[in-house]
Amino acid sequence: MAKTIYLYLFVLSALLAVFLYYNSKKIIDDQEQTIRELQNEIEVLESKK
User: Fold this and answer.
1) Confidence grade of residue 48 (pLDDT, cut at 50, 70, 90)
2) CA separation for the pair 21, 29 (Å, rounded)
3) With 0-12 CB in 10 A as exposed, 13-18 as middle and 19+ as buried, what is 40?
4) How far is it, in rounded angstroms, from Cα 22 to Cα 26?
5) Per-residue confidence band for 12, with pLDDT thresholds at 50, 70 and 90
6) Is pLDDT above 90 for 49?
């Protein structure tokens, strides 16, 4: 009985870890894309001076 509970807890924690990894990776990728877009916009505005 205890073995199955530990197995379920392990599987649940592994799935949670995978979910958190991919979710944070997506957030970081979105932030990097926003930074690149803003840097390009800054370059365009500076070149107009």
Assistant:
1) confident
2) 12
3) exposed
4) 6
5) very high
6) no
Q: Which residue has the tokens 């199955």?
A: 4
Which residues fall within 8 angstroms of residue 35, CB to CB, at 6 or more apart?
none
C-alpha pair distances (Å), 42 with each of 9, 28, 38, 47: 49, 21, 6, 9
In this structure, the dihedral spanned by the alpha carbons of residues 19, 22, 24 and 29, taken in order and rounded to 10 degrees, is -160
Q: With cut-offs at 50, 70 and 90, classify the pLDDT of residue 15.
A: very high
The whole-angstrom separation of Cα 1 and Cα 15 is: 21
Q: Is the dihedral of CA 4, 5, 10, 13 positive or negative?
A: positive
